[in-house]
Amino acid sequence: MKNIFEFGDSLGPNKIVHIYDHHSGLKAILVVDNVACGPAMGGVRMAPDVTTEEVFRLARAMTFKNAAANLPHGGGKAAILTNPKVPAVKKETLMRAFGVAIKEITSYIPGPDMGTDEACMAWVQEETGRAIGLPSAIGGIPLDEIGATGYGLSVVADVASEFCSIDLSKAKFVIQGAGSVGLHAANFLTARGALLIAVTDSQGTLFNADGIDIDQLTELKHQGKSVLDYADGGKLSRDAIIDVPCDIWIPAARPDVIDADNVDRLKTKLVIQGANIPFTAKAEQICHDRNILVIPDFIANAGGVICGAVEYGGGTKEIAFQTIEEKIRKNTTLILENVASTGKLPRQIAIEIAEQRIRRATAYRSKRHGPGLQLIA
After folding, report:
1. 139 pLDDT exceeds 50?
2. Contact in structure between 228 and 236 (CB atoms under 8 Å)
3. Structure pTM?
4. Helix, strand, or coil here: 43?
């Protein structure tokens, strides 16, 4: 437990909560990182091996993401420690138990994440009265269904391609992670003329230099099949996705997939981080030194939380897409212009912008909001 307190700094975390419910079998971690700009907003993921440190890092990424997007929300994150492929009845039991456990923590607004979806958020909403990414049938804007995060990644690609001499209409791209974010990003990018040449899931890597049909691939995944079931293309190991030469490489799966040991295998001009914290800090520095442009996660994949904030404020899907386009285009341009003029890492510039907005908001907050780091076990 002692190490938990080492996460504290001038920004947060506001709360670290460990949850255990014997009746349901729920084991969960919640980090409410910073609430200076408003109640924390961030997803609930399901994975059996998540640590408190990982949840904190994800929550801090959400703090920066929401501040950089100039949303009236702070950052938070939650994880339920279980296999996301548990039976639907068990998943509902766990989500409802989680909702009951966080009901009084009104400084946190949950949303969907890896292993959870709009149905999960409907269960949490029923228990807490608050959630984003809800099914459209109950007035929500289902983030995964409309591809809000993937759309934002395509906007980033459109802006960033001009800074690294890529013709997006002829670009070859790779997706590491064939989940909702990766598949929607591929769909929006192919609509702009780019060519998907490799994609991976937990079973392996599919490679086809002539291009992969995104509609066929999406249908396969919706049927519960692997990318390796795609009829036309080479079948490689999961890790081989790192070695595929391309113009744009998009990590859209777990954290820390690229580190100092494997980053030199990347052969690309542009990395757009669809996943949260997919690169270590050292890996990003190495890419920068090699003139590989890396757009950090909390700028690139902000489409989902921007959509969530629009939903929470009563907006429509159309307003959400318009807001995603405006905010991500503006932020990406601002950051890359600063990178070009200063030579700093994109993440460094993005953090500076986010921290400026957080500190301005903090100046308006009364000290009555209580202490910084709290541990509730």
Report:
1. yes
2. no
3. 0.89
4. strand
